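Final report, closing paragraph on structural work. Over the funding period we assembled a curated collection of sequence-structure pairs, and we close with a single example.
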Amino acid sequence: MKSLPNYLQAQRKRLALSQEEVGFLLGLNGMNKGNKVCRDETFAREPSLLDALAYGVIYGRPVSELFAGLHHQAQQRVAERAKVLSFRKMRKTEPRRKQAIIQLAESASVNPNNP
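Its predicted structure, as stored:
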């Protein structure tokens, strides 16, 4: 799996929590709670949506900030598909729908994190 930036480890260290403690807060059971947190931090696996939301609660940061790499990737993909959709649908589209598609298509170019 391609490694995308996340800020889980930095946020955990900011709060001086151990991986085991974060694992407990996530509701993990067993002796190796920290192993899953380690895999999430190093992106050896993508956390579930529920775990991602829990990380947001634990660290007090938006999920889009904690998983900036995945957020950027999702934004790029949606923008690319919105461009295709705009070419397919623009002639017979109601104004609100047309505006929503245009905004999605342009979202990657106005993102300050866009390389």
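Residues 8-66 form a domain with the 434 Repressor (Amino-terminal Domain) fold (CATH 1.10.260.40). The mean pLDDT is 85. We thank the funder for supporting this effort.
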